[in-house]
Amino acid sequence: MVKSLLSFAVAALSLSGSVLAAPKYQPWSTTTHFPVVDKWLENKCPGKYQACTDDNISIRKDFDAMPPQERKAYTDAINCLRNQPSQLDPNVYPGAINRFFDYAMVHVNRTRDAHLNGFFLVWHRMYLHLFEQDLRKTCGYTGSFPYWNWPATADNLRGSPIFNGDAFSMSGDGYFTGNTPLQIAPTFILPHGTGGGCIMSGPFAGMTRTINDVTNAFLLNGTTPPMSIYAKNESCITRDLNTFVAQTWTNYTAVQQAVEAPDLNTFEILLNGVVGGGQLGIHSGAHFIMGSPASNIFSSAQDPIWYPLHTMLDRVYTSWQIRHPDQADAVWGNETPLNLPPSPNVTLDTQVPDWGYFDLDTYTVGELKSTTAGPFCYKYDINV
Predict the structure, then answer these.
(1) What is d(CA 374, CA 355) in angstroms, rounded to the nearest whole number?
(2) What pLDDT digit, counting tens, does each position of 212-223 carry?
(3) Do 273 and 296 meet the contact criterion of CB atoms below 8 Å apart?
(4) Nearest to 323 by CA among 273, 384, 381, 270
(5) Is 99 helix (H, G, I), strand (E, B) or coil?
(6) What is the C-alpha separation between 114 and 106, in angstroms, rounded?
(7) For strand 174-176 and strand 235-236, is the pairing parallel, antiparallel, or unpaired?
(8) What residues have CB less than 8 Å from 106, skipping those under 6 apart?
(9) For residue 26, pLDDT beyond 50
(10) Source organism's superkingdom (predicted)?
(11) 138, 242, 293, 315: least CB-packed within 10 angstroms?
(12) Cα separation, 307 vs 301, whole angstroms
């Protein structure tokens, strides 16, 4: 098997190419909640959570639409986390060089527990929430928690505020390393992007990574990675912005297909694809827009773009739930990636894998299904 990034899976469904269709926006209203999920929570967890109201709800916004100083405040807060000491055992996790990298280590540690299975969407929803709260409590961030609007940047990656490389961006591309194509699978090759080298500009220029890319075989064959994956291997974070991938797999039409998927199974296929195909899903496509490490399922959270990328993923999931209110509590998948080794089906009552020391409480899948109930109280500026 080619040592590839099939962990983000290759879609069996062909999306609609590089045609950018006009977005169909769904504005927020006070009636846009999740009654099926909220009723389940009322029955299962009476009195456990504070009510989410229009007075205390937070709004997540498109990074590019945020005022420049708010964008800078967000990246300053991330750099603040990078200046906080790690709380992990350095003998076990030597690559955890600060608190920001503690999150990356948790992601590596939970990759097999929270990908290509029934926990994927809710585990990542909570992981984002914990990171957001940490930015606020530890680093005093008061702005919006941003998302990267994939289709809005597809035609002009380097010119978009999120990637233009100025002081108000999420940093730009890496330096150009050549035109060698990226082989994803024996019959699936992507063209090289416009970078490939170390990040050159912006608030994360020269930022270090400590975790090597990890082969996907551990997901595909159901085995546990060795502890050596946590070793400290310092090098610069690289990026390789790829317009071909952006226009082909993260365009408006592709996103619209996902939010209009008839059921959660189809929705997740359109997000992540199916191993063995020759197409990417919209979520996997977003990772491959960036190049390594952001395109490696285990080590991707070392690049700060991971967070706006996955907030967009959650925005798409939230939009799907809003468009399918009778299925907002739907579950699909097993407890192990690709059901390897075989495992039970996930249900609303199944306990979700933890997030390390960032939250010592336990949660069921059902508790994490609503953005306006349970531990969450947020909405998006505009739903897809």
Answers:
(1) 17
(2) 999 988 988 888
(3) no
(4) 384
(5) helix
(6) 11
(7) unpaired
(8) 127, 355, 356, 358
(9) no
(10) Eukaryota
(11) 138
(12) 8
Question: Among candidates 86, 383, 28, which has minimal Cα distance to 230?
Answer: 86
Distance CA 159, CA 172 (A): 9
The Cα 71–Cα 380 span in angstroms is: 17
Peptide bond connecting 27 to the previous residue in cis, omega within 30 degrees of 0: no
Tell me the C-alpha distance between 172 and 82, whole Å: 19
What are the start-end ranges of the H helices in the chain?
35-44, 68-82, 99-109, 120-139, 150-153, 217-220, 243-249, 252-259, 264-272, 282-290, 306-323
SS3 235: strand
Strand-strand pairing, 196-199 and 174-176:
antiparallel
Name residue, tokens 């990034």. 5
Residue 246 has pLDDT above 50, yes or no: yes
Angle among Cα 78, 80, 81 to the nearest 5 degrees reads 65
Domains and their CATH numbers in the chain: 25-383 (1.10.1280.10)
Q: Angle of helix 252-259 relative to helix 282-290, nearest 10 degrees?
A: 140
Relative to beta strand 235-236, strand 279-280 is: unpaired
28-37, 109-118, 130-139: which range is least confident on average? 28-37
Name residue, tokens 């978009």. 160
CB-facing half-sphere around the CA of 326: CA atoms within 13 A: 2
Per residue in 314-343, pLDDT (tens digit) is 999 999 999 999 999 999 999 999 999 999
Whole-number Å distance between alpha carbons of 241 and 357 = 33
Q: How far is CA 24 from CA 58, 146, 175, in A?
A: 23, 20, 36
Name the phi and psi angles at 287, rounded to 5.
-65, -40
